[in-house]
């Protein structure tokens, strides 16, 4: 056989070429490699990536992925509510035939990759309900086919780029519940959206939310004299005094509330522990936020009906906290707040909706709440390690609060000075 190959070099060359072609045919496509980079960046999930294999020729049979039948290019990536934890890698921009990207309701963090602007076929982009921070890339203005853009309930900062005004096909736009600042562009498509698209961003301004921007109120070009350096120093000193007074007043108010809470705990808090009885007849209902509770309402109500004093993990002047353990092993903290009057309850419902729409790494996630005839039951993520009451309080004493107030005071003063 060796003698034959030596006499037939062209045949040997043909075998090498055939081997290379066969190996190339087994190589994963470029879209598959981009998706594997995304999988590698994600540190946790619900197991959606179990069939994402490097040995596959293309990713068209992977869970959450849909390809074009002819070109085998990825056109849909649907990974909503999959408990994904990690950043969005820039390799996602290599999916330049992508039409729908749905990653909402996860725990993705980090900044938005500007490379997403390369996905110029994108029509629907859902990234709401994550922990994405940083700025909105101006490259998003290149997504000229975009019809739906939802970036709400993240921790985005900075201004809304003017390039988004070029998205003429945009029919749904939502950046609410972030930390965006500055003027909302109003020379293009963003002028068509009202305040519901921007709610929860305290420092935004523009005609869409009926808020006049400070730059529009006064401009040097209108002949108004600019303040002198002396006036500026006086103004700065005044702001410093006002900030210091406001800080001290707020701290005194916190101290008063702490003492009042301690008083209520001594006189009423412990009574609530022994009088627990969740009334879940007829009119009870469960409200969920972001689909964060993967249970049927009847299953949650059934579980609540079986809870008793053995489930109590803490109590205070504003209610009692219980440990809610579901059958699948997930554990939640249940805060019981007794209803007062009908008018205040309606405002309270609205506050809960706003609180439930906010997701931040420094806030305990509010999953939802249960409306019972006598009380509201707030369902939070359960944080092991005991209660704050057990850490702060010595039985029968409240002086620990004063130490906390002093710590807050000395931590706050440098912030006041730097802001002024």
Describe what this molecule looks like in 3D.
The chain is built from nine helices and 18 strands. With 420 residues, the chain is an alpha/beta fold. It has two domains: 25-219, Leucine-rich repeat, LRR (right-handed beta-alpha superhelix), CATH 3.80.10; 249-407, 2-Layer Sandwich (Phosphorylase Kinase, domain 1). Helix 5 runs antiparallel to helix 9. The model is unreliable at 18-25, 218-226, 269-278 and 397-420 (pLDDT under 50).
**Oligomer description:** single chain
Q: Rg from C-alpha positions? A: 29 Å
Care to count the β-strands? 18
Could you say which structural class the secondary elements and strand pairing correspond to? Answer: alpha/beta
| Residues in β-strands, percent | 15-25%
How many individual helices? Answer: 9
- Major β-sheet annotation: 6 strands, mixed
CATH-level-2 architecture of the largest domain: Alpha-Beta Horseshoe
Order of neighbouring strands in the sheet with most strands? 1-2-4-6-8-10
The total tally of domains equals: 2
Q: Give the H and E element order.
A: HHHEEEEEEEEEEEEHHEHEEEHEEHH
Any idea what the shape is?
globular
Unreliable runs, pLDDT <50, ≥5 residues?
18-25, 218-226, 269-278, 397-420
Question: Quick gist of this model?
Answer:
This protein has 420 residues and is of the alpha/beta class.
SSE blueprint and pairings:
Elements: H1 2-7, H2 9-26, H3 30-41, E1 65-67, E2 74-78, E3 85-87, E4 100-102, E5 107-111, E6 124-126, E7 131-134, E8 148-150, E9 155-158, E10 172-174, E11 179-183, E12 203-205, H4 214-217, H5 229-274, E13 285-288, H6 297-305, E14 312-316, E15 319-325, E16 331-338, H7 342-357, E17 366-371, E18 375-381, H8 388-392, H9 400-419
Parallel strand pairs: 2-4, 3-5, 4-6, 5-7, 6-8, 7-9, 8-10, 9-11, 11-12
Antiparallel strand pairs: 1-2, 13-17, 14-15, 15-16, 16-18, 17-18
Helix pairs in contact: 5-9
